[in-house]
Design brief:
Strand content: 15-25%
Oligomer: single chain
Largest sheet: 8 strands, mixed
Distance between the termini: 25 Å
Radius of gyration: 18 Å
Shape: globular
Structural class: alpha/beta
Strand order of the largest sheet: 1-2-4-3-5-6-9-10
Length: 277
């Protein structure tokens, strides 16, 4: 595995980890996007990257530039100011910046099959993956892991309170931190609803894409995935029975093997992407 750092939105760093399979020919690339209150090294995501690389993919796990971690503290939310300033536009731009880096870096791109670039994304990252697939022809397809069906996860009443206060807080149950979200996040969504309304985005997708969802998801209801699958005939929905939102993982993760539910998801993703190549 190799680690890199590039400049992202507002010149904040995007940390990257790349797992490369043993291969004498160019290989397809999977970019992995974490979800809300997540990071590329959370729990079993490093093992997920390794497992996909064993299946013949180069896997590039990335931190969004405003996810609250830093290159010096990759496992902790030490930059809550940055977390509070995050927006969907910034996350979307971060993915484009990573794609630009792959294509412009000959040491990386010489080993990548640039016609076969995919995204795997967990939870809220799934929405950013869909936006990217809709806007960037360099991405061939995506697979979401319990991806959200909407980014508008607030009521009108909550929105009015958010606007008045300027900031709201989300409790991180693992760290007990109050994670700030500035009103600029909601503003960015409302001002760019043509880009970030996921139902509209899904209706525009021309490529086949995969929705892997946990049957017992306690965070993103299975109904969201079922609705997305109905909104586009190119969608394929796979449900992992009895799985939870993290597909059996958690942070910290001390196991040396993937949880069975994540392993099932990885098999589905690998087979799906290979069917498109």
């Amino acid at each position: 595995m190799s680690d890199y750092s590039i400049k992202g939105s507002s010149n904040r760093p995007i940390s990257l980890s790349l797992d490369f399979p043993a291969s004498e020919s160019k290989v397809p690339l999977v970019i992995f996007l974490h979800g809300f209150k997540g990071f590329k090294d959370w729990g079993h995501w490093p093992l997920l990257g390794k497992e996909l690389s064993h299946k013949g993919f180069a896997v590039l796990r990335m931190n969004f530039s405003h996810n609250g971690t830093t290159p010096e503290s990759p496992f902790d939310f030490v930059d809550l100011e940055s977390f509070g300033e995050n927006t969907f536009s910034k996350e979307s731009q971060d993915v484009k910046d990573v794609l630009n880096w792959v294509f412009s870096n000959p040491q990386i791109s010489k080993n990548i099959d640039l016609d076969n670039i995919f995204i795997v994304a967990h939870s809220r990252g799934g929405a950013i993956a869909m936006v990217t697939l809709n806007e960037d022809s360099r991405v061939k397809s995506i697979a979401t892991l319990s991806g959200v069906g909407t980014l508008a996860r607030f009521t009108e009443e909550e929105l009015a309170h958010w606007k008045k206060q300027g900031v709201v807080y989300a409790l991180n149950g693992r760290t007990n931190q109050q994670m700030p979200m500035n009103y600029s996040l909601a503003e960015d969504y409302l001002n760019n609803i043509h880009r970030f309304d996921i139902s509209s985005v899904i209706s525009q997708l021309k490529s086949p894409f995969l929705l892997v969802h946990a049957e017992k998801d306690e965070t993103v209801a299975l109904a969201e995935a079922e609705k997305m699958a109905l909104e586009n005939g190119n969608a394929r929905l796979e449900i992992i029975e009895n799985a939870n939102h993290s597909f059996g993982g958690g942070h910290p993760y001390t196991g040396t093997k993937l949880p069975l539910d994540t392993e099932k998801a990885v098999h589905l993703i690998s087979d799906f992407f290979k069917s498109l190549m």
